[in-house]
């Protein structure tokens, strides 16, 4: 195995996991993009970050994209080199929009484009490595494949399948100023939940797959959850209050991933958008990213 090019640029979308009831399983790619250029060099590794995370992220070997590129090259049996990395980031960090999964998937897809036998790093291999690095496959699956995905892990590793989407599905994202670490949001979850709550979520997840495919009239009941959002409410009170208020007004609103952003599976109207903006939310209308991570020509 050898490197067949010395530079590659990859675009990767933001993602929202869970979509309400589909905890650690469902994900949706949304049209907010990071762009990463990786150049193999003879010298030391350097990282330049523009946009989100410009002043917060490591600038050497500890950068997550660098670590992912190296993991991909190792799996492919390709030689390592110094890396010159340029990241132009639009995905908010620490907001439940899959920024870490995007970084990992971008690095792995970049590694695939650099090597002489890219089939070694096919989508299955990329998802498997990304799941090892992330701990779960939901964000990584939708970042890799685009659209909506269902992901799972079994004895054979991580797997994902695309979920058919209504082409008219709208997406709005409410981004707060505050951040919340995923590990903090996970720490408040109980080790066990009542059987009735697990059964409730199983039914709502099945209903959500139907709703995403065209039954938009079912989106509000289909996005109900009893497994994680209420447990996390005290850790992100403005998020919980926004979700409750939007749902009371008939919007299919959920916590985006581990939060604190809010995902609405519809296009918010101007009045609601203005009201939310007046309360400090940055309201995005990115739509669905139908394409996942890909090399830019």
TrEMBL record:
Catalytic activity: L-homoserine + ATP = O-phospho-L-homoserine + ADP + H(+)
Keywords annotated in UniProt: Amino-acid biosynthesis, ATP-binding, Cytoplasm, Kinase, Nucleotide-binding, Threonine biosynthesis, Transferase
Pathway(s) of this molecule: Amino-acid biosynthesis; L-threonine biosynthesis; L-threonine from L-aspartate: step 4/5
Gene designation: thrB
Annotated GO biological process: threonine biosynthetic process
Top-rank taxon, per record: Bacteria
Protein's name according to its UniProt entry: Homoserine kinase
Main function: Catalyzes the ATP-dependent phosphorylation of L-homoserine to L-homoserine phosphate.
Enzyme class, broadest EC rank: transferase
Domain GHMP kinase N-terminal, residue spans: 64-147
Organism in which the protein naturally occurs: Georgenia muralis
Entries under Pfam families matching the protein: GHMP_kinases_N
InterPro entries per the UniProt record, alphabetical: GHMP_kinase_C_sf (IPR036554), GHMP_kinase_N_dom (IPR006204), GHMP_knse_ATP-bd_CS (IPR006203), Homoserine_kinase (IPR000870), Ribosomal_Su5_D2-typ_SF (IPR020568), Ribsml_uS5_D2-typ_fold_subgr (IPR014721)
Gene3D superfamilies in the record: 3.30.230.10, GHMP kinase, C-terminal domain
Keyword Metal-binding applies: no
CC terms in the record's Gene Ontology section: cytoplasm
Major location category of this protein: cytoplasm
Known EC number: 2.7.1.39
GO function terms (MF aspect): ATP binding; homoserine kinase activity
Family according to the record: Belongs to the GHMP kinase family. Homoserine kinase subfamily.
Taxonomic classification: Bacteria, Bacillati, Actinomycetota, Actinomycetes, Micrococcales
Residues the entry annotates as binding ATP: 92-102
PROSITE patterns (alphabetical): GHMP_KINASES_ATP (PS00627)
Compartments where found: Cytoplasm
